[in-house]
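Researcher: Structure prediction, please.
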Amino acid sequence: MSVLPYLVAVWIFLVGAHGLATSRNLIHAVGCLAVCQSGTYVLLLAVGYREGATAPVYADLEPGSRPVVDPVVQALALTDVVVGATVTALLLALVMQIAKRHGTVDPDELSELRG
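Model: Predicted structure follows.
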């Protein structure tokens, strides 16, 4: 088992988190959040990977004849994609409303939102 996919997932997540922390634009921040989410896709697929395993289609396999990958992890990755797309669409809609009402997408210029 290789540690490389886990390192790639952490690296993708950290790149997105760095962009999110240093962003001066709300649209850029939403994009960086989507990059963080893609790190979780890589992590889920790395967890479900098995060396030499085949797809989990059991019609042509005899039980125990060869290893198969975990279908639950693949289903979680697909669910993660759908949730990520939904959250990104919602956040972009909120950014559009902020831009309409306040005329800017710079978080520092949104003085009405300060507490």
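Model: The mean pLDDT is 87.
Researcher: Thanks, that helps.
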